[in-house]
Amino acid sequence: MLIEKTSIMDQQGVELAIRRICFEIIERNRGVKNTCLLGVFTRGAVLARRMAEVIDKLEGGSIEVGSLDITPFRDDRKGENGVDRSQVDFDLSGKKVILVDDVLHTGRTVRAAIDAIMSRGRPQSIQLAVLIDRGQRELPIRADYIGRNVPTAKAEAIKLRLIPQDDCDKVVICDVRD
User: Fold this and answer.
1) Which CATH number is 143's domain given?
2) Cβ(130)–Cβ(143) under 8 Å?
3) Domain count, the chain
4) pTM (two decimals)
């Protein structure tokens, strides 16, 4: 059971972090030509769509955006009857792929996402954008773009709420209780 402890980002904080990440992506890649966004289901996909809207406004064009179901690629749980719910309607080969996730923790989700991406083609590069980096890596993975670093204890969890999945945009630290 998760017990909400502390709010660390409100709607304005989430929006500012998304905007800052978008500026960093544009700057690092000298624009977004040949670049796409892939969000990890579910909240990473919501973030990717929001980032695409911001980048489209800043760049005056459109960036391709898709959503990635990593369940079939996880090493700790298997998908529902092997169904892949990914929505990637474009070729990833030769593109700069910005992988978007909500919270970076152990790195296992990102490892599975990289496998999912590579099964669809060979991109030029894969960069990682996360709203929250909470540390405690089990794999040698780091984010290229981070909204906020929030070191947490093992007995804590980060809960991200995003519209339309939730009633508001908010990031909270929760205590994990049995």
Assistant:
1) 3.40.50.2020
2) yes
3) 1
4) 0.94
Is 176 within the bounds of a domain?
no
pLDDT tens for 114-170 read 999 999 999 999 999 999 999 999 999 999 999 999 999 989 999 999 998 899 999
User: b/e string for 145-168 if b means 16 or more Cβ within 10 A?
Assistant: bbbbebebeeebbbbbbbeeeeee
- Whole-number Å distance between alpha carbons of 120 and 115: 9
User: Strand runs (DSSP E) across the chain, as ranges?
Assistant: 2-9, 35-40, 64-68, 96-104, 125-133, 145-149, 156-161, 170-176
Q: How far apart are CA 163 and CA 90, in angstroms?
A: 26
Q: Which amino acid is at 56?
A: D
Question: What is the spatial distance between Cα 142 and Cα 129, in angstroms, rounded to a whole number?
Answer: 9
